[in-house]
Amino acid sequence: MNTSPETVPLWNKGWYRFAREQASPNYGSRPAGARIDLIVVHSISLPPGEFGNGQIQRLFANQLDWDAHPYFQSIRGLEVSAHFFISRNGELWQFVSCDDRAWHAGESFYRGRASCNDDSIGIELEGLEDGLFESAQYETLASISAALLRQYPVTHLAGHEHIARGRKQDPGAGFDWPLLQRALGLPAKYFPESV
User: In the chain, what are the domains?
Assistant: First the structure.
């Protein structure tokens, strides 16, 4: 007789069990043979410097009211997504299956390959470029990164600034890469040389 409790898998077709799910229409299929080996860390706030207002979730779902704030006119019509978003209090949201291609990196090049959307997983942290991030965000980031490392052949973690040099600056100097490295127990070769 089997008396062990039933286990619920952490992943279901690329969706993570412990994330709050809100599907985004902004995604596509990965190219045949894509090797999901890169995690890209971003930072975002909408409007810049404002947190916890649900605007990021609306942006990724194509439900942002472009007239709700003057800043939104500068991004009007933008169709983007990330796989994950981590709020200031550490809450984890998922918008795209990790098996699919989210639209987070844009024009990019890293580890000898262009078009990083094809083979990466994008994680947005609620915050400002060069700003500081909350302990709860690092805890959630380490947790989801560890789960991704077990599920996918990830061998690289980088910031948007590392894959879109000169075009993007997030998450910026305020992000603590050594803290993330220690939390994951990974060797330096997993991280950009500049961190």
Answer: 18-190 (3.40.80.10)
